[in-house]
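Hey all, quick one. A colleague (J.T.) asked me to put the N'-Formylkynurenine job into the tracker so the inputs and the structure tokens live in one place instead of scattered across chat threads. No bug as far as I know, just bookkeeping. Sequence used:
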Amino acid sequence: MDEKNDNEFLYTPSHWCKRMKPNLVVNKHIEIVQSISEKMKESRYCKSLNIRYGPGDRQLMDIYENSPTSEHTFVYIHGGYWQELNKDISAYCTEPLVNAGIRVIIPGYDLAPLVTLRNIVEEIHQLLSYIKICLKYKNIWLGGHSAGAHLAASMIHPAVHEHFSIKGFILISGIFDLSPLLETTINIPLKLNKNDCLELSPLNILNKFDFSLKTNSIKVFVVYAEHDSPAFHNQSSQFAKLLHKIGIDILEERITEVDHFDIVENLSNNNYSLTKHIINLI
Ligand SMILES: N[C@@H](CC(=O)c1ccccc1NC=O)C(=O)O
């Protein structure tokens, strides 16, 4: 098979980065996000670390804010194909948002192969329950990057987003259809079968739902990088099209001159277009 059309290749974001050799990308990304996140954890914006929201080892969250009365809360779910990265290196988006008066929550979650993807989706439900019931925050915006955008999108359902007072979703370079991952090495720790792919793909779940009957409106911002692979472009535009079809207010945008990694690394910068978009939206 032509390598460029192979799902292994299409779903390996580092292969599509134009800034450096693919084998260097992920380590460089980790170095960058870790250094920004460490500064944030030591800053005056860091309000609480390691608040437990569920029984799993990694079900802990960090809260960043400049005032306890912040009206809006952005919850940012990190990526890493549900098998790598962690919350401690994922606070890189917090400074500009907190400066704009938005509270930011960075949750951790357990990873495959220790838990299944179904377990992880359930952990995100527990996260939202904790934020609503124990922290009593309102006006929640749920965002995520890559696999984190999949987890956020898995909460788009009236029974879920209305219950948890979610105002909107910010889905950055996300995966919404899991089936292309089935035969790739990404699936080794995940162990997804065909049925799991159907039941856990927001693209499939929402295809069966008629939202036009619902009055409560959410906004969904679907955003991806110019230098994401064509498969990621397709996933975002297909998902945006479906959301539009079922009556959800959507905004779709391709961010130019960035790839799967600096599309989120740059969120530490006030002047970056995506940072400004998120602040305007919330
Ligand atoms: N092993 C992947 C890494 C990867 O997919 C990734 C890395 C950091 C943040 C998000 C990622 N992808 C999806 O969640 C690669 O080489 O591109």
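Adding what we noticed when we looked at it: The longest helix spans residues 22-42. Residues 12-14, 26, 29, 79-81, 85, 146-147 surround N'-Formylkynurenine (CB under 6 Å).
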